[in-house]
Amino acid sequence: MTTTMRLGHRRPGTAAVAAAIAAALTLLAALAGPARAGTYNYTGSLQTDQIGVTGLYKITGYGAAGGSGGGGADGGLGAGAGGEIMLTAGTTLDIVVGGAGDNGVSGGAGGGGGTFVWIVGETASPLLAAGGGGGGGYSGT
Question: Could you tell me the mean pLDDT of each successive run of 10 residues in the chain, 141 residues long?
Fold first, then answer.
């Protein structure tokens, strides 16, 4: 399995876009047979998926962005992580996709939630962990 990690970074003017897309998780099978792709978004609940076809799966995920603090201080973007792993048919995955942090009104903001994927079984095996971005601080007087 090859794993890569990319840390979130700030880009001016993209906070709203980042909050909307930062917590998406994608599973993509690269198979000789029919390809299978799935995208998972924040639901506030555990999501479960069962692998139907044995093959090499590319898994990528992003933690959610932190909220903006009172006075306009931007929150950080979530981290990204990904890799490829061979999964067998019948393997069950549990998936949690983090939600964006709440904005602060007269103080600091909430941090974004992390995104996680693991194999369900006797010994739960983590496949992906991507942390959420920190909440923006308060920059008012």
Answer: 30 40 46 56 89 86 90 87 88 90 86 91 85 84 58
27: nearest Cα among 128, 113, 111: 128
Residue 97 near residue 25, CB atoms below 8 Å: yes
- Beta strand pairing status for 125-130 and 115-119? antiparallel
Angstrom distances, CA of residue 42 to CA of 79, 88, 111, 113: 15, 26, 15, 10
Tell me, rounded to whole angstroms, the distance of Cα 125 from its chain centroid: 17
pTM for the whole thing?
Answer: 0.74
Q: Which two tokens stand for residue 15?
A: 């906070």
State in Å, rounded, how far the first CA of the chain is from the last one: 50
